Amino acid sequence: MVKGEKSLFDILVLLLLVFSAIIIISPVVIVVALSCRDGIQAYSNFFIWKPDLLYSLSNSVLIASTASIGTVVVSLPAGFILAKKTFKYRNLIFTLYTAMMIIPFQMIMFPQYDISQKLHIYDTLSAVILPRIFAPFGVFLLTQSIKQINNEILEAAELETSSMLRIFINIIIPMIRPALLSVWVISFCENWNAVSEPLVFLESSEKMPIAINLDSVSLTWTFGFAATVVYMVLPLLIYSVFDTDIQEGLGELKVK
Description:
14 helices; mainly alpha
């Protein structure tokens, strides 16, 4: 009886998951289907006859790729220091990094705006990219991942070479590869979908990412749906390629 009840429960859970998946996926399927009502004509219009949107797409690629790569470059040494080096106020600094993840953008918007004005980078892509390079999530995740590396491995590596760069390249990076890819993919998707920062730090419409300028396209047209599909393709493609690494990188996360 217990076995039968368990099987029934498993079936109900499976049906619930399938139903939830259909609800989540159905809008994407509908958008793709509507974008193909005129064949590939709408996509041809996007890439040939809409240079403004194509330029916005290139802005999004530049912002997302630069900011996400920069996040990995900055977070890796910071995570190593917080994980493996002992110094005063280390735990306090890590706690502050963690707390920064829950602070909404609206609370730091005006200081960042003022800094961008003083650095003379306002209304440039740098005003959007630079603050997002120092996103705290990357430091948090890589700190937890590097903590799981056995200290004896690092000590043995230090005996063989005094170059920290070689230790990073040959030891640390291969051991935390899933976490690094997780930071990169998550950061890329966050920057790809960024809306608030471009609206605050950019004025020129030609510098806006596609997440902003897509709003100017009427979604009642087939072209609008095609533009939406183009907007979705790159993040979905990146996630699908690194899906296993992301699950491994986040699945091994242990807060210590």
